[in-house]
């Protein structure tokens, strides 16, 4: 395992590896690593000669300062976990290495509708910050493949758009959601759940499953309302529960079997905001 803190040092190392024809996989993270992250890293390690994992809590994607301040940071534990993977390059930059001219979440590309719905509607500026940091990281690492989790499905669509517009030499690989045994999607934020909400949290995934199972027979508006009511009755505050075209994220009003669907939700569990989603293929 090699650890780089300076962009220039990492770039010099990677330039040599590239000259030797090594294929590179890249996994950007914000640290506080869990099995969800480790799956991405293992997949990249299995599919590439070299895997680079970045750990950087990007300030420009947090729309609330308190969320940035409370975001869990566990660098020593992260490095211990990463040691298990074997030959791995870790990039652990400071803000200055990523934003030499100061932090920015200025829109780099036009994301259209993707920057208006679901996460974008409730977290203004979030995806502009995500695009800024992923663009900068991809420009530094220049990987062959980029590994991201379905857990942040809208983010995957956003980065697919960034790659299409600006970095077409990188292939985006989306990895399935890794869940706790009771169904809760793994997230760095889960450690902040109090005991009560941790016990109730599997209801989020279960509600997505129930809604998907009802798709063939019930009206979509009814399915969504029932899901929201169920989550709110359990004590969550539901920001959205959407059923949309998995390619465009356009909300669907009625069931059509012409496109894959994605069911997505964001809820507040006390002070902690959780998101989850479920992909439903055309021929379900
Ligand atoms: P984060 O550190 O939260 O920015 O996540 C870094 C990467 O790990 C992103 O591509 C996430 O989508 C992915 N990820 C986070 N949690 C999970 C999970 N439970 N399953 C799969 N991928 C995940």
Summary keywords:
9 strands; alpha/beta; three-stranded antiparallel sheet; 11 helices; Rossmann fold; six-stranded parallel sheet; binds adenosine monophosphate; Pantoate--beta-alanine Ligase, Chain: A,domain 2; globular; 284 residues
Q: Which class of secondary structure composition applies to the elements? A: alpha/beta
First and last CA, distance: 43 Å
CATH level 1 name of the largest domain: Alpha Beta
Task: Determine the CATH superfamily of the largest domain.
Answer: HUPs
What is the string of helix and strand elements? EHEHEHHEHHHEHEHHHEEE
Task: Compute the number of helices.
Answer: 11
Count of discrete structural domains:
2
Number of distinct beta strands? 9
Strand content: 15-25%
Which ligands appear in the coordinates? adenosine monophosphate
| CATH A-level architecture of the largest domain | 3-Layer(aba) Sandwich
Largest sheet: 6 strands, parallel
Shape: globular
Unreliable sequence segments = none
3D architecture notes:
There is one protein chain. The protein has helices at residues 7-19, 35-47, 65-70, 75-83, 95-98, 119-122, 126-141, 153-166, 195-200, 202-214, 220-233; strands spanning 2-4, 24-29, 50-55, 89-91, 145-149, 171-175, 237-245, 261-269, 272-280. The longest helix is centred in the middle third of the chain and has 16 residues, at 126-141. With 284 residues, it is α/β, with parallel strands linked by helices. The mean pLDDT is 96. It folds into two domains: 2-175, HUPs (Rossmann fold, 3-Layer(aba) Sandwich), CATH 3.40.50; 188-277, 2-Layer Sandwich (Pantoate--beta-alanine Ligase, Chain: A,domain 2), CATH 3.30.1300. It is built from eleven helices and nine strands. It has a six-stranded parallel beta sheet with strand order 1-4-3-2-5-6, with helices on both faces. It has a three-stranded antiparallel beta sheet with strand order 7-8-9, with helices on one face. The structure holds adenosine monophosphate (AMP). Residues 29-30, 36-37, 40, 148-149, 151-152, 175, 177-178, 185-188 line the site of adenosine monophosphate. The site of adenosine monophosphate (AMP) has 16 residues, from helix 2 and strand 5.
């Amino acid at each position: 395992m090699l650890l780089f803190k300076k962009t220039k040092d990492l770039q010099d190392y990677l330039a040599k590896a590239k000259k030797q024809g090594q294929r590179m996989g890249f996994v950007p993270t914000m640290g506080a690593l869990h099995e969800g992250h480790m799956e991405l890293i293992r997949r990249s390690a299995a599919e590439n000669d070299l895997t680079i994992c970045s750990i950087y809590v990007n300030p420009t994607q947090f729309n609330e300062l308190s969320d940035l301040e409370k975001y869990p940071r566990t660098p020593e534990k992260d490095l211990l976990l990463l040691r298990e993977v074997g030959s791995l390059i870790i990039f652990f930059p400071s803000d200055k290495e990523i934003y030499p001219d100061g932090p920015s979440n200025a829109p780099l590309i036009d994301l259209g509708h993707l920057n208006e719905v679901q996460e974008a509607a409730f977290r203004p500026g979030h995806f502009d910050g995500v695009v800024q940091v992923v663009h900068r990281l991809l420009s530094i690492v220049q990987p062959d493949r980029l590994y991201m989790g379905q857990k942040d499905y809208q983010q995957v669509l956003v980065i697919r758009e960034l790659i299409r517009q600006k970095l077409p030499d990188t292939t985006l690989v989306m990895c399935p959601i890794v869940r706790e045994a009771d169904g809760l999607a793994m997230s760095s934020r889960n450690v902040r759940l109090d005991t009560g909400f941790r016990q109730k949290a599997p209801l989020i995934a279960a509600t997505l499953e129930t809604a998907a199972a009802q798709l063939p027979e019930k009206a979509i508006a009814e399915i969504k309302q029932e899901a929201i009511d169920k989550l709110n009755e359990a004590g969550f505050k539901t920001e959205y529960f959407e059923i949309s075209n998995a390619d465009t994220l356009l909300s669907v009003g009625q069931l059509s079997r012409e496109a894959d669907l994605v069911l997505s939700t964001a809820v507040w569990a006390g002070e902690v905001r959780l998101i989850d989603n479920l992909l439903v293929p055309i021929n379900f």
